[in-house]
């Protein structure tokens, strides 16, 4: 529980305004003088009166409380406060920001000074991108170790997805984001394709979106499935060492979500590479797909995942069929992915063992 202690507020003021800054009073807005000095909880605006540079000043210190409306995590709330700090002063008659900061694990208030961009520093991992292995396989060099690696992916996902969370609003949020986010389905439709696009006309996009509304309402009944996820588990986010060990990069879209998203994200890439040379899942990529999918289902016992997979395949098909993201695909590859994207929504349960049926010409 965050506590806004008097000493920490004064330390913050000294860091921002100099060592001569002094907190004079803190309390509820409208009752500052009656409230006096004390410790305060969080989520409620706090009026502070302080001396800085020989001048008595007043300010309101606010910390957002988490809620189920897209503010579950501190980084959600940070984004809103950063927006307010950056833009409020540019609006006529709007209150002016005086500072931006964060509360650390010791309840200290740490100022963020004139932020422009944020960065992250990660460790350097050894290995090559997994997509290079898939390209090697496409060119004819298929190894037994490739099958074992696909099994390892499935085992790893099974372990990750074994962590569950009881939070229905968060599951609903993840499904909303899947369909409506700027970086997911509707964002891909709007920005990753030209309009009109002869290979998939706007009328088909409209029909696709309407069908996805049905799936959104269906998936509301699966909130019990909320699990730890990676969120972007594809061949460009996996590093493989020469010893066959793998590491993952770029966890995305939150810690919790629908495990079927991870399962579908890697699976569709086996189909993508197979479409270079076939009109269906075939050859070594079919073997990889079946080993990966079968191992996952055996390890998790999660047959229910097949009831929720379709919209996740749509999202990933939109990504890997995009002429912006993948400009060099032959028309036949793109068409196969479009067929999958349309047809998969018509089955209530994904028929993973007969995926080729989704490759037929869509509506």
TrEMBL record:
<protein>
    <submittedName>
        <fullName>Phosphotransferase</fullName>
    </submittedName>
</protein>
<dbReference type="InterPro" id="IPR011009">
    <property type="entry name" value="Kinase-like_dom_sf"/>
</dbReference>
<keyword id="KW-0808">Transferase</keyword>
<feature type="domain" description="Aminoglycoside phosphotransferase">
    <location>
        <begin position="124"/>
        <end position="293"/>
    </location>
</feature>
<dbReference type="Pfam" id="PF01636">
    <property type="entry name" value="APH"/>
</dbReference>
<dbReference type="InterPro" id="IPR002575">
    <property type="entry name" value="Aminoglycoside_PTrfase"/>
</dbReference>
<dbReference type="GO" id="GO:0016740">
    <property type="term" value="F:transferase activity"/>
</dbReference>
């Amino acid at each position: 529980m965050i506590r806004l202690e008097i000493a920490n507020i004064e330390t913050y003021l000294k860091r921002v305004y100099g060592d001569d800054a002094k907190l004079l009073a803190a309390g509820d807005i409208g009752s500052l003088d009656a409230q006096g000095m004390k410790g305060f909880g969080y989520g409620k605006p706090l009026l502070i009166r302080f001396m800085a540079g020989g001048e008595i000043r007043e300010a309101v210190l606010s910390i957002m409380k988490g809620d189920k409306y897209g503010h579950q995590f501190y980084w959600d709330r940070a984004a809103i406060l950063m927006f307010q700090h950056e833009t409020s002063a540019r609006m006529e008659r709007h209150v002016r920001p005086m500072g931006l900061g964060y509360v650390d694990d010791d309840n200290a208030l740490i100022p963020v000074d004139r932020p422009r961009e944020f960065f992250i520093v990660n460790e350097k991992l050894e290995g090559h991108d997994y997509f290079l292995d898939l390209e090697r396989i496409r060119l004819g060099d298929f190894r037994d170790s490739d099958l074992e690696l696909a099994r390892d992916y499935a085992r790893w996902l099974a372990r990750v997805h074994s962590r569950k969370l009881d939070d229905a609003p968060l599951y609903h949020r993840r499904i909303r984001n899947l369909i409506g986010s700027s970086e997911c389905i509707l964002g891909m439709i709007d920005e990753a394709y030209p309009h009109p696009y002869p290979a998939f006309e706007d009328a088909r996009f409209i029909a696709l979106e309407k069908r996805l509304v049905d799936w959104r309402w269906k998936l509301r009944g699966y909130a019990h499935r909320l699990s730890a996820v990676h969120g972007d588990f594809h061949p460009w986010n996996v590093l493989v060492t020469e010893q066959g060990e793998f590491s993952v990069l770029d966890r995305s879209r939150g810690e919790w979500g629908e495990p079927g998203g991870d399962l579908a994200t890697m699976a569709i890439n086996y189909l993508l590479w197979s479409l270079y040379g076939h009109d269906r899942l075939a050859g070594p990529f079919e073997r990889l797909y079946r080993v990966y999918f079968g191992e996952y289902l055996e390890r998790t016992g999660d047959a229910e995942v097949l009831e929720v997979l379709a919209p996740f395949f749509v999202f990933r098909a939109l990504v890997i069929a995009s002429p912006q993201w993948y400009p060099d695909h032959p028309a036949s590859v793109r068409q196969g992915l479009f067929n999958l994207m349309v047809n998969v929504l018509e089955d209530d349960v994904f028929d993973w063992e007969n995926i080729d049926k989704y490759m037929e010409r869509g509506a």
